[in-house]
Design a protein that fits this description.
The protein is α+β, with helices and mostly antiparallel strands. 19% of the residues lie in helices and 43% in strands. It contains 6 helices and 15 strands. The longest helix is centred in the first third of the chain and has 18 residues. The radius of gyration is 32 Å and the shape is elongated. This is Restriction endonuclease type IV Mrr domain-containing protein.
């Protein structure tokens, strides 16, 4: 059960540090646990145990484990994943993988299948890869992405937009009866509603714009006069309170361009972590916003 497969279930991840340079080994282990926790919350398995920095009994002697994840599958079978987190300045060698293989075998029991995951920031030499491939270990490269990692990839989309905005102005109402003094002071157009016997209350702005605004695929709607008549008169309400009965309402309706603005989507600065399945080649990019993007190496 490769860990990178579980990451496909990941919908969000907590914001993490930008770089491993200032992290301690313990911090690196905690980030690993955090990612596993987010994966566990959204996977189809049921987590029974998820811990950082503990000691497990072994066949010959106990062993310190950086991160432990135990769960039951949908079919009810128990499974255990043990993580060893390395943060060295060199690539891990064959002896590193062999040593971890021994730990995994020591804490494994026949009734609970155990998968070993070796996590490192600097990669793995060929000998370590062969050991992992032969004995079913998962080896992951987990670190903050570099400029080389993202070279040649689309990282950011810049969108420039100039919105077209419907406008209703010069509002005039032909009143047949006042029901209150609500219209005696300043009135916000968007607070006005008229009562429709079939559809209930309708906003005056929506009523005046309906059928009058061009589709966005066409030119801007030129300003023109619009009148809506009511026979018999209908109730006009202001902020939900009856204000008057009206025979008609009219206004100048059209469209105008608003101020342009830019939207940026993505960006190198939004990437928090990169997790690479060293044997399979799949890469998961984790963002500060909690998203995950999977690609083939």
């Amino acid at each position: 059960m490769p860990l990178i497969t579980y990451s496909k279930q990941l919908v969000g991840a907590a914001q993490m540090a930008d770089s491993t340079d200032s992290m301690s080994s313990t911090d690196y282990e905690k980030v690993t646990r955090l990612l596993v926790e987010r994966i566990a919350e959204r996977s189809l398995v049921t987590t029974t145990r998820l811990e950082h920095d503990l000691v497990l009994p072994g066949r010959a002697s106990p062993h310190q484990i950086d991160v432990l994840w135990e769960f039951t599958t949908e079919s009810g079978h128990a499974h255990r994943v043990v993580f060893e987190c390395r943060r060295k300045s060199r690539s891990l060698e064959q002896n590193d993988a062999l040593a971890f293989k021994g730990v995994v075998e020591e804490v494994s029991f026949d009734d609970v299948p155990t998968t070993g995951v070796l996590v490192h920031v600097k990669g793995f030499q060929l000998g370590a890869r062969k050991i992992a491939d032969t004995y079913g270990l998962i080896i992951l490269e987990m670190r903050s992405p570099t400029d080389k990692d993202v070279k040649g990839r689309l990282m950011k989309i810049q969108i420039s937009m100039t919105p077209r905005v419907p406008v209703v102005k010069d509002l005039h109402m032909d009143l047949s009866e006042l029901l209150s003094g609500a219209l005696s002071g300043p009135v916000l157009n968007y607070a006005l509603e008229v009562q429709d016997p079939r559809d209930g209350w309708l906003r005056v702005m929506d009523l005046l714009q309906h059928g009058e605004i061009n589709p966005t695929t066409e030119v801007l709607t030129p300003f023109h006069r619009v009148t809506r008549s009511f026979d018999p008169p209908v109730v006009l309400a202001l902020s939900g309170k009856p204000a008057a009965k009206i025979r008609s309402i009219s206004a100048t309706v059209g469209e105008e361009l608003s101020d342009p603005f830019d939207i940026s989507v993505g960006g190198r600065e939004n990437l928090a972590w990169m997790v690479k399945d060293v044997l399979g080649g799949e890469i998961a990019w984790f963002t500060h916003a909690g998203q995950v993007h999977l690609i083939e190496s």
